[in-house]
Write a structure and sequence with these properties.
Blueprint lengths: L3 E8 L13 E8 L4 E5 L6 H9 L6 E6 L2 E2 L10 E4 L11 H11 L4 H14 L15 H13 L6 E5 L7 H18 L2 E6 L2 H7 L2 E6 L2 E6 L1 H6 L4 H6 L6 E4 L1 E9 L2 E9 L6 E5 L4 E4 L5 E2 L1 E7 L3 E8 L2 E8 L10 E4 L4 E5 L2 E3 L7
Parallel strand pairs: 3-8, 3-9, 6-7, 7-8
Antiparallel strand pairs: 1-2, 1-4, 4-5, 9-10, 11-14, 12-13, 14-21, 15-20, 16-20, 17-18, 18-19, 21-22
Helix pairs in contact: 2-3, 2-4
């Protein structure tokens, strides 16, 4: 297991980058705690796999260092980093049995045969392939082969880190849930440092202790699922986390109030004057649709009944927003207005969250 330090780390695929826009991975300075499970979350092309490949040694950064337990491994080959990596598409030895595929990393390091047999049996059960251990990998389905890849990545107990690059892409939905649960169990049992790359927020939020949200080559927030939901540090985090995502409105901020579509809205806290493009963000869970004439005038576009609740799609002053309503709530057709729970409102300047006066850093 290892603490992973990213020191002034950045990478460009251009030989002579001229500006920040030329960097696929913009400057990072972070310490990732030994033994925690992290998810790298973001849209395609945001730099997740680039960062993972630098950690694994498949890619050398354009600048900066990467350290395992304070030891510089920036230019150390992958074999010397003592990591296990599972890729998006299955990598298996077709001529070997499932058992031999799982045993390969242990045998390659001279592990005791009795330990190898016991550990392979344990991992085979974990990935639901006990009955196929003596089958050749050739001819197995893509999701079965990916389970073998996952198992081979998990079979060693002595690794510095386990790295997963979108490993459940080819797995059927039911098995995805089971394998995520098994990965969490493995983490709790052995305390490996785990880094899991995904664009799927459900995978990230259900797997990780901390989620690392990336946008345009930059880490915009590292936090627990609760922190990402309640206090998104960047408007992208609010948009990307949650379904529906956070509503964002242009606003004028004056102390403890915001003006949205010409209506004053209480913020629940005071803010110092800020420069740049000012906006407020509020999640649909903190938006209430009323017919009593209070709040911001709105127009109901449609109501989506998803069983446990309703998603109300509205428009205010040309901007669209979403609200979550109870299954039994009546959505007014005449004179609808929206109000916002002040505790659920965040203020942003140029897309970055502004802390209210008095909030602890």
């Amino acid at each position: 297991m290892a603490k992973i330090t990213l020191d002034n780390l950045a990478h460009s695929y251009f030989p002579a980058p001229k500006s920040e826009d030329d960097f696929a991975l913009k400057e990072l300075n972070h310490d990732w705690v030994d033994g925690e499970a992290y998810a790298l979350l973001g849209a395609s092309g945001c730099g997740k796999s680039t960062l993972l490949n630098i950690i694994s040694g498949l890619l050398h950064p354009s600048q900066g260092r990467i350290l395992f337990n304070d030891q510089d491994v920036t230019y150390a080959p992958t074999a010397e980093r003592n990591i296990a990596q599972v890729f998006q598409f299955p990598v298996v030895y077709d001529t070997m049995t499932v058992r031999d595929n799982l045993a390969f990393p242990l045998r390659n390091r001279g592990a005791d045969p009795n330990y190898v047999a016991s550990r392979v049996q344990q991992i085979g059960k974990m990935i639901g392939m006990e009955a196929e251990l003596d089958r050749k990998a050739r001819g197995l389905t893509a999701d079965a082969k990916q389970k073998i890849s996952l198992g081979r990545g998990m079979v060693r107990e002595d690794v510095n880190a386990l790295l997963f690059d979108e490993p459940l892409t080819v797995i059927d939905p039911h098995m995805k849930w089971e394998l995520r649960t098994q990965l969490k169990s493995l983490h709790h049992e052995f305390g490996h440092t785990m880094i899991y790359v995904t664009h799927d927020q459900t995978e990230a939020l259900t797997f990780a202790d901390k989620v690392v949200v990336m946008y345009d080559g930059r880490v915009v927030q590292i936090g627990t699922p609760q922190e990402l939901f309640e206090r998104p540090a960047h408007t992208f985090v609010g948009y990307f986390i949650g379904s529906p995502g956070m509503n964002v409105f242009d606003a004028k901020i004056d102390g403890a109030t915001a003006q949205i579509a010409g209506v004053e809205v209480p913020l629940g806290a005071g803010y110092k004057p800020a420069c740049g493009k000012l906006q407020v963000g509020v999640r649909p869970e903190y938006v209430k649709v009323t017919a009593d004439g209070t709040g911001v005038p709105a127009r109901v576009l449609r109501v989506e009944d998803v069983g446990r609740h309703k998603i109300v799609r509205l428009e205010i002053d040309g901007a669209q927003l979403s609200a979550i309503a109870g299954e039994g709530d009546v959505i007014p057709e005449m004179n609808p207005h929206v109000t916002f729970d002040p505790e659920g409102i965040n203020v942003y300047a140029d897309d970055w969250r502004v802390a209210p006066a008095g909030e602890a850093a």
